[in-house]
Amino acid sequence: MHSTKLSKQHWLLILTLSLLTFVLGTSEFVIVGILTDISSSLNMTNVKTGTLVSAFAITFAIATPLVMSVTSHLPKRKWMLFLIASFIILNALCVISTSYIMLLTLRIMTAIVTGVLISLAMIVASETIPIKKRGLAISFVFGGFTLANVVGVPIGIVIAEEYGWNATFMLTTFLGGLAFLASFFVLPHRLSQVRSSIRDQFSLLTKPRILMAFFIPALGFGATYAVFTYLVPILKEMGAPNKSISIILFSYGFISIFSNILAGKIASQNAIGRLRFVFLVQAVVLTSLFWTTNQFVLGLINIGLMSLMAILLTTSTQLYLIDLAGIYQPKATGLAASLMPVASNVGIAFGSALGGIVYHQGNLMNVAWVGGIIAVCASLLTFFSHQLDQKQNTSE
């Protein structure tokens, strides 16, 4: 465990978990791109179809920590394989879905499976990879989501345009099958198994340090999404031709791949200490959009920097929550692993809503100030957490 080198088996495991998150991310995010196709097919309004997205996010946020707590005693390998098989079945049923209620029910069930599998993937990566390489491993696992946005979602949308939205779920079913085969042959047989009560699990949420750590990624994602949610109208206000917007959004996703790589490097040493300043830089980048978007080229460069900063926090905060759980409630590391994905969804909802309120009150570019202020709040909370860590280390 104290080795600093990764074996072939380690890399196979990392790539398998990354494939799993790629599949889960594609299934989660592609629905946004095929909503209008579903609306037309099922004779519904776009607003009603949009509940497929919100229902998924709400279920993900609420059910993930609950299910992780209740199932903490289950053998991880068998439980993960069962969940991946369930994912395959649920997506296959989406292919033949003929009603809104059926599709909504399947998406809610898929959200539960997705949240738990993501959390388990993070735990497995954290437990089985040498300590000094955990940051690299977790960044690769998170990288699956980035690739899902950049590669998986566009492919799913193209398939929907050519063969109908049902065919997109054929794609996610097929990808789920690949993830199952890879996981069956690569997932270790001996993974940690902790028996604890639900009370032990949820006692973790009474710890102030855990709650502080939870709101760090929530604020970090909130800062980005206060702006990103309204990126298309921002681009139009900048004078971007309609045909170029999809290319710009693709480029945004491509740049985030490098953000993910940097996230692993930040997490390699003194992660929370480094994050204090990452959030301050993010605040400057987001606030600068208020001025740089007046010039097209400068605005695009600034948006690229925004993408580069967007997910630098992921790996560090994921490991931080797991490590804090090891200190305050070792039996609840499963619950702790589920908190970062939940925090990201909370942050996305909060940032989008706050940005929307400001946007509808007046100048669109005021959302840049909102994003910057939220990023400063994230930095202050991280400074405080780091200070408490230092005091604790000194007292020990």
UniProtKB/TrEMBL annotation:
<dbReference type="InterPro" id="IPR020846">
    <property type="entry name" value="MFS_dom"/>
</dbReference>
<feature type="transmembrane region" description="Helical">
    <location>
        <begin position="244"/>
        <end position="263"/>
    </location>
</feature>
<feature type="transmembrane region" description="Helical">
    <location>
        <begin position="299"/>
        <end position="322"/>
    </location>
</feature>
<keyword id="KW-0472">Membrane</keyword>
<feature type="transmembrane region" description="Helical">
    <location>
        <begin position="12"/>
        <end position="35"/>
    </location>
</feature>
<protein>
    <submittedName>
        <fullName>MFS transporter</fullName>
    </submittedName>
</protein>
<feature type="transmembrane region" description="Helical">
    <location>
        <begin position="165"/>
        <end position="189"/>
    </location>
</feature>
<dbReference type="InterPro" id="IPR011701">
    <property type="entry name" value="MFS"/>
</dbReference>
<feature type="transmembrane region" description="Helical">
    <location>
        <begin position="47"/>
        <end position="67"/>
    </location>
</feature>
<feature type="transmembrane region" description="Helical">
    <location>
        <begin position="364"/>
        <end position="384"/>
    </location>
</feature>
<keyword id="KW-1133">Transmembrane helix</keyword>
<feature type="transmembrane region" description="Helical">
    <location>
        <begin position="79"/>
        <end position="102"/>
    </location>
</feature>
<keyword id="KW-0812">Transmembrane</keyword>
<feature type="transmembrane region" description="Helical">
    <location>
        <begin position="210"/>
        <end position="232"/>
    </location>
</feature>
<feature type="transmembrane region" description="Helical">
    <location>
        <begin position="334"/>
        <end position="358"/>
    </location>
</feature>
<feature type="domain" description="Major facilitator superfamily (MFS) profile">
    <location>
        <begin position="13"/>
        <end position="390"/>
    </location>
</feature>
<keyword id="KW-0813">Transport</keyword>
<dbReference type="InterPro" id="IPR036259">
    <property type="entry name" value="MFS_trans_sf"/>
</dbReference>
<feature type="transmembrane region" description="Helical">
    <location>
        <begin position="108"/>
        <end position="125"/>
    </location>
</feature>
<feature type="transmembrane region" description="Helical">
    <location>
        <begin position="137"/>
        <end position="159"/>
    </location>
</feature>
<dbReference type="Pfam" id="PF07690">
    <property type="entry name" value="MFS_1"/>
</dbReference>
<dbReference type="InterPro" id="IPR050189">
    <property type="entry name" value="MFS_Efflux_Transporters"/>
</dbReference>
<keyword id="KW-1003">Cell membrane</keyword>
<feature type="transmembrane region" description="Helical">
    <location>
        <begin position="275"/>
        <end position="293"/>
    </location>
</feature>
